[in-house]
Amino acid sequence: MTESESTTIPDSATRQPARVVLVTGGSKGIGRAIAQRLQAAGHRVAATYRSGDVPAGVLGVRCDITDPAQVEAAFTEVETALGGVQVLVANAGITRDTLLMRMSEDDWSAVIDTNLTGAFRVAKRAARPMIRGRFGRMIFISSVVGQLGSAGQVNYASSKAGLVGLVRSLARELGSRGVTANVVAPGFVDTDMTAVLTEDLVKKYTDQIPLGRLGAVDDIAALIEFLAGDEAGYITGALIPVDGGLGMGH
Ligand code: NDP
Description:
The chain is an alpha/beta fold. The protein contains nine helices and seven strands. Strands 3-2-1-4-5-6-7 form a seven-stranded parallel beta sheet, sandwiched between helices.
């Protein structure tokens, strides 16, 4: 996709002011659906990828969020092509599941470095232009297990719980500058990340979900579209579940 393709959406064609959006991890799963949906809503969207590609009409920027230099370069590329990022969706994440007694230092560090420190890196880089523009929406994709805990996911649950503290501190630091920060906590969503689960485990999880099904990527993307829009301007520091009732509001 070329730079000109990504910048030709006329503001007049949109329901809301077109914002410059950056989604991390837009190559697949939830991040891809978010990028696609926000682009279709008329926003000017960029998405990071490491492998694969990003949806048509979205500006793809190669970036590994564990590398501060790549984060800096990705933001600069988006700023040059589309302008300063106004809506940040920190979505990129990994799992390295195993029980505590078998969890290596590397299993722990890799997940924290990607899911929590990666979110810190992109938030820090996004903040200054948002403050300058006196407008910003930071949205972080956590998980229901950040609040419920999950056997075999000490690293992942810690990283996702950590996002809540990160976001609530950002909400306090940046609220007076017109920047909101919120956490979205999906339940089990049908993506590559959950494709590794056995059929038995999926059934066990599904039995615990009041709505009786795994989430679809668009269940999450719909909320992100709302949070990026003007009507969400008075929501900050919130932890919003999209989990079919699995976490009962947590
Ligand atoms: P996928 O595995 O399908 O996609 C993960 C995305 O993150 C990919 O685009 C991947 O890019 C990107 N990514 C991973 N590591 C890095 C990195 N170091 N730098 C840049 N990008 C990276 O996962 P989902 O779509 O399922 O998950 C998306 C988010 O939602 C994650 O934060 C996950 O924890 C969270 N979540 C998912 C749930 C689920 O049930 N699926 C439930 C709750 C939360 P690439 O492939 O190009 O490397």
